[in-house]
Specification:
33% strand; four-stranded antiparallel β-sheet
């Protein structure tokens, strides 16, 4: 009886504190050198000496394509935080996870695709590629979220806008999805300081826009996650320091051109949301982290959230910084995976700062779910690109629904989606 009571108390404590209950095992880590080249075919170097074909920043986002062991990974805006006219791109990579083998995770780059507008103008990462107040009319792009649609289309969330674009298999933009005006900075400019209060009193914070993107298993909806609270949601204090807790999640219905918004509460104003991944049509995994690396890293966590009982705040113009009113219910949030847990041996001197990508892959041979976590190396030649492969017991993801994909036609080149 004493053991039974202790077990019950432990269960109640875990539920009350949001402690993780998932049985998640680190299978292995795949790496590529930080000075590797991509398959863009670009030549030459940037003004600071970095090759134009540097395979960097691709840990910013990862998505399964539904084709064998192929994934799409998006590089962000390039080296030096938007200083260069880095040609924006995504990559296709074969990621094989074979528990018990050495290495358990192997990586092979198979293609690099440059991103362009409908009239073949290249998207670039430069802050200065800003000409228009409407974000979708600019050429600057900071890819931070990527998902593959049922038909093979590639959806990319841009941190600058924020905007969400749909690209075809050749990298040409098909369309820009409608984003509510409240997410756009009220005073967009070429420099981050131009977008801070008092010049801008609403919209995303500079460099804290749409950082994550999920797609529901049926391919009908996207859910974008803001990295930090909007300015009008108490995101900054009077010194323009991060002060708010309430990030907005934006659900976009791809077929009906309508949207909903939900509140994701951060653990700490200093943290940010880096990624969101669908478990089913209402449950998601959210990657929340601090901005510290090595021994200083304190928070690198994956939470499981549920939208089912959360309030749609699409008609709420502004949220309070710290305490929500009683009539607004945030998403239900439970700790699923602590990347700094001692068992994984990730914490320490080599711990990356920017864990930014989440993707489910095909189930492992023993039936467990495969969860990939990627880290952005910021184009640093001495920092390897890393893919962490975790095995998740099926019992710890009840209700999991794998993403559905339509058949594709093969033409000898990039996969061409078959439209229905």
């Amino acid at each position: 009886m004493r053991l039974l009571r202790l077990s019950v108390l432990c269960s109640l404590f875990a539920a009350a504190t949001g402690a993780a209950r998932a049985d998640v095992t680190l299978v292995g880590v795949g790496t590529l050198p930080g000075d590797a080249s991509d398959l863009s075919g670009l030549t030459g170097r940037s003004p600071d000496g970095i090759p134009h074909d540097r395979l960097g920043g691709l840990g910013s986002a990862v998505a399964y394509t539904g084709r064998g062991t192929e994934y799409v990974l998006a590089s962000d805006r390039g080296p030096k935080d938007g200083v260069n006219d880095y040609a924006c791109r995504y990559h296709r990579m074969d990621i094989r996870v074979e528990p018990g083998k050495s290495p358990a995770v192997s990586l092979k780059l198979t293609a690099t695709t440059l991103l362009t507008t409908e009239d073949a103008q290249r998207f670039v990462g430069s802050l200065h590629a800003f000409k228009h107040q409407e974000p979708e009319k600019n050429l600057r792009l900071d890819p931070e979220g990527v998902r593959v649609g049922r038909d093979g289309a590639v959806f990319i969330a841009d941190e600058y806008g924020p905007v969400v674009y749909e690209f075809d298999a050749t990298g040409k933009r098909r369309r820009s999805l409608p984003i509510p005006a409240r997410f756009h900075t009220a005073a967009p400019g070429k420099a981050p300081t131009d977008e801070l209060p008092p010049k801008s009193t609403a919209g995303r914070q500079p460099n804290r826009g749409m950082e994550g993107l999920a797609i529901t298993p049926d391919g009908g909806k996207l859910v974008g996650a803001m990295q930090s609270p909007l300015i009008q949601d108490g995101g900054l204090n009077d010194k323009n320091e991060r002060a708010g807790l309430h990030c907005r999640l934006l659900e976009l219905d791809l077929g009906k051109s309508k949207s909903r918004e939900f509140v994701y509460p951060l653990d700490d104003p200093a943290n940010g949301v880096s990624e969101i991944l669908a478990v089913n049509d209402h449950e998601f995994l959210v990657l929340e982290r601090d901005s510290r690396a090595g021994q200083d890293a304190k928070a690198k966590k994956v939470y499981r959230i549920d939208l089912a009982a959360a309030t749609d705040v699409s008609r709420v113009d502004a949220l309070p910084a710290l305490r929500l009113p009683a009539d607004i219910v945030p998403v239900k949030k439970t700790l699923f995976l602590d990347l700094l847990a001692p068992a994984y041996k990730i914490a320490g001197n080599d711990c990356p700062e920017k864990f930014e990508g989440l993707a489910f892959g095909p189930d492992l041979p023993d039936g467990r779910r495969l969860l990939l976590v990627t880290a952005d190396n910021d184009f640093v030649a001495t920092a390897p690109f890393r893919v962490y492969a975790f095995a998740v017991d099926k019992a710890d993801l009840p209700g999991f629904v794998p993403q559905a994909f339509d058949p594709v036609e093969h033409t000898g080149g990039p996969p061409v989606p078959r439209r229905k």
